[in-house]
């Protein structure tokens, strides 16, 4: 048994839990608040499936983007581990926090700007009013767009986060990429 590998595994699980609980849920709530849905509890108590569907798609989309942050953080942990025999917990927390923040802010902004653009294009139809009035069709339309947006943004987010990794300095003609 390799004790350092067990410790790294535990750290990676903890990072994933933090990303899921705080990142995805917080991000989805921020998106909905920016779109005018400020009282999720009220809509859920009323059984508004349209709002619940929009929340779920935002959570899933941000989760997809946070998966990239988890991968970048795990790569940083692995690179730091190979650079020294002991892991510096403060450095790991800093990398994890940085990756989480960049992915979360990027995800929230991309989803809000994307949805506002769709709503601008479809000015004749008020999607958010329809969703607050329990229109599942409107929620399905925006939810599909949100998920597609998350998948298409991922490669750019991956490159952005790779730029934050502590990659070793190599000669001019040699370069490495983490992906």
What's the layout of helices and strands?
Layout: H1 3-34, H2 40-45, H3 49-83, H4 89-121, H5 127-132, H6 136-162
Helix pairs in contact: 1-3, 1-4, 3-4, 3-6, 4-6
Low-pLDDT regions: none
Helix proportion of residues, in percent? over 70%
Distance between the termini: 28 Å
Q: How much of the residues is beta strand, in percent?
A: under 5%
Determine the structural class based on helices, strands and strand pairing.
mainly alpha
Total helical segments: 6
- Main sheet, how many strands, which sense, barrel? none
Inertia-based shape: elongated
Give the rounded overall mean pLDDT: 84
Q: How do the helices and strands follow one another from N- to C-terminus?
A: HHHHHH
Radius of gyration, rounded? 19 Å
As for the number of domains, it is 1
- Tell how many strands the DSSP assignment holds: 0
Q: What descriptive keywords fit this protein?
A:
elongated; 179 residues; mainly alpha
Question: How would you describe this structure to a colleague?
Answer:
This protein is mainly α. It has helices at residues 3-34, 40-45, 49-83, 89-121, 127-132, 136-162. The protein has one domain (21-162). α1 packs antiparallel against α3 (49-83) and α3 packs parallel to α6 (136-162). The mean pLDDT is 84.
């Amino acid at each position: 048994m390799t004790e350092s590998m067990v410790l790294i595994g535990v750290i990676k699980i903890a990072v994933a839990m933090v990303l899921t609980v705080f990142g995805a849920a917080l991000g989805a709530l921020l998106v909905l608040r920016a779109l005018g849905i400020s009282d999720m509890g009220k809509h859920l108590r009323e059984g508004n499936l349209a709002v619940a569907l929009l929340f779920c798609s935002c959570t899933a989309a941000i989760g997809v983007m946070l998966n990239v942050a988890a991968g970048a953080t795990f790569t940083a942990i692995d690179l730091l581990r190979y650079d020294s025999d002991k892991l510096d917990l403060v450095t790991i927390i800093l990398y994890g926090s940085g990756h989480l923040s960049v992915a979360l802010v990027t995800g929230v902004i991309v989803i809000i700007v994307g949805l506002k653009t769709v709503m601008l294009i479809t000015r004749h139809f008020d999607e958010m009013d329809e969703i607050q009035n329990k229109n599942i069709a409107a929620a399905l339309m925006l939810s599909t767009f949100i998920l597609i947006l998350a998948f298409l943004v991922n490669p750019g987010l991956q490159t952005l986060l790779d730029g934050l990794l502590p990659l070793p300095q190599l000669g001019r003609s040699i370069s490495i990429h983490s992906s």
